[in-house]
Amino acid sequence: MDLATILGIIVGLALMIVSIMMEGDISLFVSLPSLMIVLGGTMASIMVNFSMKEVLSVLPLLRVAFSRQDNDNTQIIETLVEFAEVSRREGLLALEERAQATNEPFLQKGIQLIVDGTDAELVRNILEIELYFLEERHRIGQRIFEQMGQLSPAYGMIGTLIGLIAMLGALDKPEQVGMGMAVALITTLYGAVFSNLIFLPIAGKLRLKSNEEVLMKQVMIEGILSIQAGENPRIVEEKLKSFLSPVEREAAGRDRSRSQSAPEGVTVNA
How confident is the model at residue 73 (pLDDT cuts 50, 70, 90)? Predict the structure, then answer.
């Protein structure tokens, strides 16, 4: 689980609830009609704007946003450098079985293409096309949550108008005026909270995870093409490290030094 996402939502809700309890009765801020207006209206608009298949992808996207994604670019670079060393010693055909042992379908596909003797430019085109459509699929999920973030405050305002109309229509019934005003204000609150604490942050988290995955696959593409070109493994390593931040490069260098200095048969835990 992605603790940052979960803690962010929990802390945000907890601070608001504590603030409300310090000022008055929390039951005054609970309104089922307001919740129905905001969430029901937002989901209805999403269904109008997107296909049913895209709407049904919301729950899997939530799982992605709340799950921890292990995109270890350093590990991928080490694997590609190892493949480069094997290729120079034993040839490209020796990589086929090693690639199948990995759990990266994108890497497996790229290695299979070069093992099959596919032209380097065609390999790049095939992998970049697949990467492009991966980004497009990710953007659909991001757009869904971005639109939910834009729509929920709008439905909060619609709820406010509904509450005000109900209040004005019941001026001769003082006991209903308070209920109409409560719906008017609480619906606006719900719309703002859902937008700024849940929908827009989830869209941002999905964008961040998409960028991380795309970067990892760009590393794979460059590594695969370098292996096909028969480049020196050290050159491959230096080229791929250019994708890493200075902090990641320094950490990778320390790990490599520790593994090289460890006695034979001894495993160094990172």
Answer: confident
Is the separation of the CB atoms in 116 and 96 below 8 Å?
no
Q: How many domains does the chain have?
A: 1
Q: Is residue 4 part of a domain?
A: no
What is the distance between the alpha carbons of residues 206 and 73, in angstroms, rounded to a whole number?
18
Q: Is residue 190 situated within a structural domain?
A: yes
Residue 255's alpha-carbon distances to 20, 78, 237, 244, in angstroms, are 49, 11, 14, 15
Asked whether residue 208 is assigned to any structural domain, the reply reads: yes
Q: Kindly give, in sequence order, each residue whose CB lies less than 8 Å from that of residue 223, ignoring residues fewer than 6 positions away.
A: 76, 77, 80, 81, 83, 84, 236, 240
* Single-letter code of the amino acid located at 65: A
184 pLDDT exceeds 90? no
User: Containing domain of residue 112, as a range?
Assistant: 30-67+91-257
